[in-house]
Amino acid sequence: MSHRHDHDHNVVAEACRHGACIEHGSAHAADHRAWSRRNFLSRMGLAAGGAAFMLNGRPITAFGRNPFLNAIQQADTDRVLILIQMNGGNDGLNTIIPVNNDIYYNSRPTIAIPKAQSILLDDETGLHPAMSGLQDLWGNGNMAVVHNVGYGNQTRSHFEGTVNWSTARNQGNAENTGWLARYLTEEFPNLYSNPVDYPLAVRVGGPATIFQGQSGNLSVTFGDAQDFERFLSQGGFYDTEGVPSTTYGDELAFVRSVTNASFRYVQAVQDAADVGTNLVDYPNSGLSNSLAVVARMLRGGLPTNLYTVSRGGFDTHSNQGGATGGHANMLGDIASAVQSFFDDLAQDGLDSRVLVMTFSEFGRTLNENGSRGTDHGAGAPLMVFSRALNGGLYGEQSNLTDLYGGDPRYTTDYRDVYWTIAKDWFGMDESQADTIVGDRYANLGFVNEAYQTAITPREEPQGFHLSQNYPNPFNPSTTIAFQLAQTGRVKLSVFDVHGRQVSSLVDDYRPAGQHVVDFDGRGLPSGTYVYRLETASGVESRKMVLLK
Description:
By secondary structure, the protein is α+β, with helices and mostly antiparallel strands. Helices cover 27% and strands 22% of the residues.
């Protein structure tokens, strides 16, 4: 391997970076103010790409033009990666516990987790008792823990940590593209001229910077369904012509044009969420609701490969708690949400297509602070979940004596995890994985060999194609086109959202070739309708909106 772990011992100054600890008072508060999403995006020169809207009370962003995401789509893989951000810097030592290490217990007199209360993963390692919901996944080999993940020269800054995890850069290097956005920039420079009709990544909360390339888009947020309908009433696009002939007008036209280009993906997300269902009950929490939405979109057939969700609150400077308390509640939320998500996916075998990985911008200090909490640290474990895993423990747990400015030093480079996912999960060759992550990194081996052939043909209707109606939305009429590869009997019908047929447009034999049918919505109320094409080769449906 050409990379190396940077064990720079000249770290005392950084370990005490003013603002990293709660004792630093106003400097710590200022550090957190700087760690705002707006500041993060502006300092990175990035913005959330795609179109955002609300779905069942959850903010949804559909991402469109992105190099790596398009690379996955071109490869025709059905594999799905879901990243759960444990936002704020998770205390890894109280999540994956060194149950036989006296240094751990002596350093944390009130918040350490007793061995007797831990869920033992092996003789040396325990899981926080609040995460008991993960025991079945662990026992079935569907959970892996990677010890003490991080990078050299950790600054203990939320902003810097999030930038690094998003870009896979070395700390301090200039990089403003996400690690999931680089591959196609070099390998497929003409891909932007051949967009697809569905989002290649979807964010249900959490930062979007992992998906950002040099041509990242601005996002549009819809506060509610009425706002979304108002947008549709304008034909689905903002006006780029009726703007002032000024610098401001030029900028406004640019923002609107970017929005228009990306909004085409929202319909596919909405369609999938309408069709998909959850087959188990989820706990009532923000993270659980986010994962439930993802499960619906997967089951609804959305061909999207990348999702991010987020759970905040892990910046536990005070009153962190031990086996119970605030940190325990957050870990319990992660565990119950992941358990319910995989229980849901297992109902129809979707769990073998999905890999879930947790990450946080850094770990916490070894020593408990004076407020019975922990401050910004360095290395921390992460968890991976899938039916396609070699479950178990990976990497080396810190011995808590080789420290980085007083904190557990990382022993596994976080890009080892990224490289393993690119190579073994998405089926890319070594040179492609090198391009994505930026160098040759270690293969950790947590993806089961039986699942390492990720490239599979995407199932599409054979022998026919149903196009999106035009215009859409429409009033009062619209045109529906379909193409047949061979002569056969065809039915083209229109249904309302309750499944009642409102029109039969075609019900006879049609020759091979292109066919066009007009649909007149006079006499029908405004709303969403489904048109369905039935042939001997299969059935396909699309949605259209009548706005009067």
